[in-house]
Amino acid sequence: MSAGLIEVLAQFETEEACIAYLEAARWPDGVRCPACGGGNISKFTTRERRRAVRDAQGSVTDTRRIPSRHLYQCGKDGCRYQFSSTAGTAFERSHLPLQTWFRALALELNANPRLSARQLERELGVSYATAWFLHHRIREALKNLR
Ligand SMILES: [Zn+2]
Q1: Of 14, 60, 91, 128, which is the most exposed, with the fewest CB atoms less than 10 Å away?
Q2: What is the pTM of this model?
Q3: What's the 33 CA to ligand 1 centre distance in angstroms?
Q4: Vertex 4, ends 118 and 112: CA angle to 5°?
Q5: Is the peptide bond before 67 cis (omega within 30 degrees of 0)?
Q6: How far is the CA of 88 from the centre of ligand 1 (A)?
Q7: DSSP H helical segments within the chain, as ranges?
């Protein structure tokens, strides 16, 4: 790993740091409501919880972790829209932590000549399916930039 890459990855050590980065990049003049454009925005965090996984008979067989989410809410009367920092971006709906996305992005950008999904799997400690998904989404996004 290059020194530059380590520096980039260190910046994205926590989910909060990733959100702060994304927030500053998207809304340099302060967070605005995507629904009404209002600037009276409050932030809140949902608590991490576990959801029961049931079998066909309805017995609880396992639990799944629902990570805490960092959300915004518009304070304008009649709007009150709730959104996340990833709403409307490539990161939306993936359910992957931003940390994983940013680390994958940093690795892909620094790869010489290019990274394989297998390398991403090893570097990030995610499943191959996740690594493959990230690899292709990022490749696609980078192709559109060039
Ligand atoms: Zn609003």
Answers
A1: 60
A2: 0.64
A3: 5
A4: 40
A5: no
A6: 15
A7: 3-11, 15-26, 98-110, 117-124, 128-145
